[in-house]
Amino acid sequence: MTVTDIKQIDKSRLEIEIDDTFTFVLYKGEVRAYEIKQNQELDEESYQKIMKEVLPKRAKLRAMNLLKSRSYTAFQLEEKLKKGGYPDGIIKEALDYVISFGYIDDERYAADYIEYNKEIKSQNRIYMDLSVKGVSKEIIERMWEGIVGEDKKELEKKQIFQWMQKKHFAAQTADFKEKQKMVAFLYRKGFAAENIRNALSLDITII
């Protein structure tokens, strides 16, 4: 295999390209230690050591360090490791490692997020937030039903009234334009049209 390119990422790291297709990142000291040079062959022994020892260990440590400061979904942690220049196979190995110890659990993450935000965010907003974080629809729905269940309509109505109070909005005295403005605001927050309509006692033509 041929080292077709070497790019400097920052003061201490270099991106190594193999055969114009495959890349990985090493520290400058490692590049010197393995005598990696552009347009020269990388011997199989060195390559295997990098792929099976150096990078897996580093990726696992990186994942563990990230998880010390906050929780991540599997998708979020994968994206972090991708930004670090780790190859896909190394990323999978690191993810499998932290998952095996229970350090990453998308169900737990979703449950914690729902529990923390259910009083302040709409169901749609929570679903959207968790989807962006890479949590599957099936997990989101299951965790939502388990935590909120039949209380979801009352919970959303309560949230809508809280926003109305915060905005000093009174449906009884508001004119049509003010009602439309409030409806649009609540809709952007992710509340269902039916719940907005019921809370504001508005005519269906307004929504």
UniProtKB/TrEMBL annotation:
Domain (RecX first three-helical): residue spans on this chain: 59-97
Q: Which domain of life is it from?
A: Bacteria
Q: Which Gene3D superfamilies match?
A: Winged helix-like DNA-binding domain superfamily/Winged helix DNA-binding domain
Predominantly, its location class is cytoplasm
Q: Does the keyword Cytoplasm apply?
A: yes
Instruction: Quote the cellular component terms of the Gene Ontology held in the record.
Output: cytoplasm
UniProt keyword list: Cytoplasm
Q: Where is the RecX third three-helical domain?
A: 159-200
Which cell locations does it reside in?
Answer: Cytoplasm
Record-annotated RecX second three-helical domain positions: 105-141
> What's the protein called, per UniProt?
Regulatory protein RecX
Organism the protein comes from: Parablautia muri
Q: Tell me the classification of the organism that encodes this protein.
A: Bacteria, Bacillati, Bacillota, Clostridia, Lachnospirales
